[in-house]
Design goal:
This protein has four domains: 3-96, no CATH class; 101-183, Annexin V, domain 1, CATH 1.10.220.30; 186-232, Up-down Bundle (Single alpha-helices involved in coiled-coils or other helix-helix interfaces); 234-332, Annexin V, domain 1. The longest helix has 20 residues, at 298-317. By secondary structure, the chain is mostly helical. It is elongated and about 80 Å long. It has a two-stranded antiparallel ribbon with strand order 1-2. The chain contains 20 helices and two strands.
Length: 332
């Protein structure tokens, strides 16, 4: 933490009354810098407070309650330290947010959700969004756009000049509202009405009904269809196959390299399930290949496993193997 960050955390920890007395003795620029940082700190844990306060006072270990910062704390502290009028002036200055900060909520948003947010926007707006997120995110979403729109967005991005912070913040604000609406609905995977729940319901339906529903999603919402399929047919589903079915699956895989990548980081039970159904020499070759390739990106492992699952699902649809599901009873 730099000196401004430490000062902000310290003032939050000691409460608004004591903080206001300290702020009274600072110049305006310092007040702005510190209070702007204070507004970014939502809360401090007891451990964080002890570490910060330890630089300023002795025997602070007895204080264990969480201290909250945020905008309300900043406003109250400013008013208490310098009066309503001056406090409002400084507060307005610290409330000015840069476009980068405005789009920061997209930092950890998946490409699927980001595509959902921007797909109906005009090319200029999408280009503006792309200019304020990571290149990897922008690249992933660009590939998901319609070809003609993707070309137009790329062209707009190449021609883009400096955009006013006000215009950028209007776009960021609109996207944030839409994102909040999406995440408060059923977009998040752990929502009771989300994809996980739907997949679980489909898992208990008869085959015909499941296929009808999945067919609808594949036509209308392919991204959602893929997410549902990933939950119904997972890489771990191989554990429910018979040894004979595993051998059929292996025979239909493109290469041992694909299987080697898919088995990277997999549990021992899954590795054994595959390796016990190939010859000893082939099992040795697969293990050697896994060791030879060294660390593998998680995205590559996920892609390989998805290919295996797709083949497994195709074999299940053809009746060549049977992926056991909760709705069905089986007799060995």
């Amino acid at each position: 933490m730099n000196s401004i960050e430490k000062a902000a955390a310290f003032l939050i920890s000691i409460g608004s009354e004591a903080a206001s007395e300290i702020l009274k003795n600072m110049d305006d620029d310092t007040v702005v810098a510190i209070t702007k940082e204070m507004s970014r700190i939502e809360q401090l844990s007891p451990e964080e407070k002890e570490e910060i306060i330890g630089d300023f006072m002795v025997d602070f270990n007895r204080i264990k309650n969480i201290s909250y910062g945020g905008e309300s704390f900043v406003r109250k502290t400013l008013v208490s330290s310098m009066g309503e009028e001056k406090a409002e002036s400084i507060y307005n200055r610290i409330k000015t947010v840069s476009p980068e900060e405005g789009f920061s909520f997209l930092k950890n948003v998946s490409s699927d959700v980001l595509h959902n947010l921007v797909q109906n926007e005009n090319s200029g707006t999408i280009a503006l969004v792309f200019s304020n997120i990571s290149s990897s995110q922008a690249g992933a979403v660009l590939q998901m756009l319609e070809p003609d729109k993707a070309k137009e967005v790329a062209l707009r991005l190449a021609r883009m000049r400096k955009v006013s912070p006000e215009a950028a913040m209007q776009v960021a604000s609109a996207l944030k509202k839409r994102y909040d609406a999406l995440t408060s609905a059923d977009v998040l995977h752990d929502h009771p009405g989300g994809v996980d729940k739907l997949a679980d319901i489909l898992n208990h339906l008869d085959e015909r009904t499941e296929q009808q529903i999945m067919s609808h999603f594949e036509k209308e919402q392919p991204d959602t269809a893929r997410k549902i399929a990933e939950r119904i047919y997972s890489f771990e589903s191989v554990l429910d196959l018979t040894n004979y079915e595993v051998r059929i699956l292996i025979d239909n895989l493109d290469s041992d390299e694909l299987l080697s990548i898919a088995l990277k980081g997999a549990g021992d039970d899954i590795r054994v399930k595959f390796l016990r159904n190939v010859s000893n020499n082939r099992a040795t070759d697969i293990i050697t290949e896994m060791e030879r390739m060294g660390p593998v990106r998680m995205s590559d492992i996920t892609k390989a496993r998805r290919e295996v699952v797709d083949i497994m699902r195709a074999l299940d649809d053809a009746g060549t193997i049977v992926i056991k599901k909760n709705r069905e009873k089986y007799i060995e």
